[in-house]
């Protein structure tokens, strides 16, 4: 993300650019992991573009917030794992974007918060639903009700991020850690990873019995793959598997 004059805030043009990028990523079979990072030092995403929002009437605000919610849903629905590299401020819609990713890595100096209530708003791009799944209902309510900001260390302790790292002089420590994490995913069977993500995401939406049924359906799709056969052959032959995503 590279909108320096507006601290990567989510304006109409920027949001449409993100939609276009997601469309390309979704159908590119060469893509194995997606990392969301900022080219703007000290900020991941400052949230919605409130200067632009101030010029909208009520109907336009409702339509735009729905667009933001759809954007986060599109990020969450990408078939491959997604990682948010939070090297600076991730506030409001910026944190909601990170929450839409599968994994989050933050610099210890990063600042995160759903600060909407401090602006007379409430999280409208999925934050009220995704934050409780990370930190639990009670803590999610506290963070949303107070609009509190937390740093990377606090975020890790509450389960908001997977990893926190000390910031470096270049200001990209979280991105570097995210790349390391992505490289741990790359050797694994692509189709199995996709089915694992699908089973988790869909299973979280239903009761455990239905979730087990979803897992079974995902597993059944993986059984006839060449990668599963390769994994079994590599195990027998005591060699690293060579997965092709088929």
Automatic annotation (TrEMBL):
GO terms for biological process: fatty acid beta-oxidation. Signal peptide: none annotated. It comes from the Eukaryota. Pfam families: ECH_1. It is found in: Mitochondrion. Gene3D superfamilies: 2-enoyl-CoA Hydratase, Chain A, domain 1 (3.90.226.10), Lyase 2-enoyl-coa Hydratase, Chain A, domain 2 (1.10.12.10). GO terms for cellular component: mitochondrion. Keywords: Acetylation, Lyase, Mitochondrion, Transit peptide. InterPro entries: ClpP/crotonase-like_dom_sf (IPR029045), Enoyl-CoA_hyd/isom_CS (IPR018376), Enoyl-CoA_hydra/iso (IPR001753), Enoyl-CoA_hydra_C (IPR014748). GO terms for molecular function: enoyl-CoA hydratase activity; RNA binding. PANTHER family: ENOYL-COA HYDRATASE DOMAIN-CONTAINING PROTEIN 2, MITOCHONDRIAL (PTHR11941:SF44), ENOYL-COA HYDRATASE-RELATED (PTHR11941). Belongs to the enoyl-CoA hydratase/isomerase family. This is Enoyl-CoA hydratase domain containing 2. It comes from Otus sunia.
